[in-house]
């Protein structure tokens, strides 16, 4: 994987899971990055390991790029509508990584991806990037719209929270 969070540009995503490709591209696009991410399914069991591996490498790349987390906005929250769906994402780039996801995903599979892996992706991404991430469905019933609005919201929130500031470490303690 390669990623540049400071320069929008070409995005290439290639996995054996079509819906995951769509969601990863969406996330990276709304983060305003340039990125290349590819994964294969060597085990051939199901989509779980591909989804998890993508979250791991993306989270690790973000953690490395953020370094000491000084001079960034740190916090951001975004609400994204997509037709019937309304989804909130909030992030704190604090070094304390955990994901909290509440989405009502009544459909089991979309485009080769088990919908249960959406939560797993977000939690793994948050832990590996050392970011606190909240993702909440506020309205909607179309599972595709809910998931896509979620990936858009997370991408937008990460973009906003990673913007450079001149204020140093944004913490009352003076450190993260």
Automatic annotation (TrEMBL):
Keywords, sorted A to Z: Amino-acid biosynthesis, Histidine biosynthesis, Lyase
Any GO BP annotation: L-histidine biosynthetic process
Pathway: Amino-acid biosynthesis; L-histidine biosynthesis; L-histidine from 5-phospho-alpha-D-ribose 1-diphosphate: step 6/9
One GO MF term attached to the UniProt entry: imidazoleglycerol-phosphate dehydratase activity
Coiled-coil regions listed: none
Gene3D superfamilies: Imidazole glycerol phosphate dehydratase, domain 1 (3.30.230.40)
InterPro entries: IGPD_sf, ImidazoleglycerolP_deHydtase, ImidazoleglycerP_deHydtase_CS, Ribosomal_Su5_D2-typ_SF
Official protein name in the record: Imidazoleglycerol-phosphate dehydratase
Organism: Sulfodiicoccus acidiphilus
């Amino acid at each position: 994987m390669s990623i540049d969070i400071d320069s929008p540009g070409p995005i290439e995503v290639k996995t054996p899971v079509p819906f995951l490709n769509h969601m990863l591209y969406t996330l990276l696009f709304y983060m305003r990055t340039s990125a290349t991410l590819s994964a294969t399914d060597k085990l051939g069991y199901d989509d779980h390991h591909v989804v998890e591996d993508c979250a791991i490498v993306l989270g690790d790349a973000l953690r490395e790029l953020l370094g000491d987390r000084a001079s960034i906005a740190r916090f951001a929250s975004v609400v994204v509508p997509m037709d019937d769906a309304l989804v909130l994402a909030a992030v704190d780039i604090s070094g304390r990584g955990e994901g909290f996801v509440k989405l009502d995903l009544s459909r089991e599979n979309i485009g080769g991806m088990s919908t249960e892996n959406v939560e797993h992706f977000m939690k793994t991404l948050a832990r590996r990037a050392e970011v606190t991430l909240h993702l909440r469905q506020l309205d909607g019933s179309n599972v595709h719209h809910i998931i896509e609005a979620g990936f858009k919201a997370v991408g937008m929130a990460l973009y906003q929270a990673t913007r450079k500031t001149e204020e140093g470490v944004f913490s009352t303690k003076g450190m993260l």
